[in-house]
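Narrative of accomplishments. A recurring question from our advisory board has been how the design workflow behaves on a single, concrete structure rather than in aggregate. To address it, we present the structure tokens for one chain from the evaluation set, followed by the sequence designed for it. No filtering or post-editing was applied between the two.
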């Protein structure tokens, strides 16, 4: 993750240094995101039908070769903008597959009682890379414009070494669900995760609620930068405000296990109301420092709602469908998030800042009302933690 965050800020700078301009920089970034989105459902299917660790190792090799081709092509004076577009597309597809396999791997390797703790630690890692990655990418690019790509390539080597060092044994789910002896054959289709979510209406509502918060969060980021720029805020201050999101994410991930004690019945309505109230505060006092405080606060709320969703999916979805279910919820959430920048731009251009913040508050309230009535308390996990080696032995017998 740190290698990818390092390269993310360097790719636009590299494209500009090659004479590509802002359009090319945006096209490369968007292409990578769209490919990653398109590969969500197939990646979940692969994660369910393959050994997750081998799949992650394979994707590390693919990304290593793709990203490593950038400095190699530059050394041969063959690097082109089209080459960067292809690399970002390959990296996006491989990252989608890696992410789905990683979620399956965590559910296999970590006992149910420690699953939420593992996901909280993952959120902490994400926050740290959000803080350190851009700074490292900018510093490396200042030394040499191809150093970030070299660092990203090296990160995939290290990732593979760490995966090989993990002692937990993994296995491949075929047809039957090992948690439910005698269960029927599972749905082999790529869309099985979406179908399971559609049948599980309560879970689907929570997935959509979290997706709406993702969309509003993305809109908030763009709207904050644009509104501060229109008010004459200096770029240094805007940069400090933007960095508050990473610090908030770290703080929020550290307190997740206590916040999750609220349970979904209380956590999600409270989160929705807090988001709505925070935007109402900005509407009344739209100063950069108020935006900074709100951004930090909302980023701190995010890990708890996300980890609770992961816990619900891990508890309720069949193990043989978990990769596809998780990929389906990622697809829904990411699809909504892509509308965030457009929503912010249209609202800013049409109504201005105050109306924008109030509209975002209204969206949060509507999402909360949509979710609150059917919320259910997550039942305790009454089954013993699944030992992968035992499950494998039972399946073979």
């Amino acid at each position: 993750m740190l290698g990818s965050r390092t390269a993310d800020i360097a790719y636009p700078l590299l494209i500009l240094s090659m004479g590509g301009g802002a359009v090319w920089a945006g096209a490369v970034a968007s292409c990578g995101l769209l490919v990653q989105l398109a590969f969500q459902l197939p990646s979940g299917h692969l994660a369910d039908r393959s050994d997750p660790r081998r799949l992650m190792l394979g994707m590390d090799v693919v990304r290593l070769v793709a990203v490593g081709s950038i400095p190699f092509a530059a050394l041969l004076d063959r690097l082109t903008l089209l080459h960067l577009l292809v690399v970002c597309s390959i990296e996006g597809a491989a990252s989608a597959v890696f992410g789905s396999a990683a979620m399956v791997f965590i559910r296999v390797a970590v006992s149910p009682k420690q699953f939420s703790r593992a996901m909280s630690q993952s959120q902490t890692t994400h926050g740290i890379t959000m803080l350190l990655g851009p700074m490292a990418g900018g510093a490396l690019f200042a030394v040499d414009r191809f150093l970030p790509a070299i660092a990203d390539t090296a990160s995939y080597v290290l990732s593979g070494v760490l995966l090989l060092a993990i002692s937990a044994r993994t296995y491949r789910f075929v047809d039957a669900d090992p948690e439910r002896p005698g269960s029927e054959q599972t749905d082999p289709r790529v869309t099985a995760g979406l179908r399971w979510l559609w049948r599980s209406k309560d879970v689907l509502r929570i997935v959509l609620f979290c997706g709406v918060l993702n969309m509003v969060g993305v809109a908030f980021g763009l709207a904050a930068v644009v509104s501060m720029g229109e008010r004459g805020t200096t770029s240094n201050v805007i940069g400090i405000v933007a960095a508050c999101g990473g610090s908030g994410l770290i703080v929020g991930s550290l307190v997740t296990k206590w916040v999750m004690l609220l349970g979904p019945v209380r956590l999600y309505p409270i989160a929705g109301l807090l988001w709505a109230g925070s935007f109402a505060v900005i509407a009344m006092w739209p100063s950069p420092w108020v935006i900074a405080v709100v951004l930090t606060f909302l980023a701190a709320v995010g890990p708890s709602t996300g980890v609770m969703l992961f816990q619900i999916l891990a508890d309720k979805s069949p193990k043989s469908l978990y990769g596809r279910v998780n990929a389906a919820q990622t697809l829904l959430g990411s699809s909504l998030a892509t509308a965030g920048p457009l929503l912010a731009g249209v609202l800013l251009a049409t109504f201005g800042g105050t109306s924008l913040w109030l509209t975002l508050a209204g969206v949060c309230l509507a999402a909360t009302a949509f979710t609150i009535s059917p919320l259910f308390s997550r039942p305790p996990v009454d089954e013993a933690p699944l030992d992968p080696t035992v499950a494998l032995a039972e399946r073979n017998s």
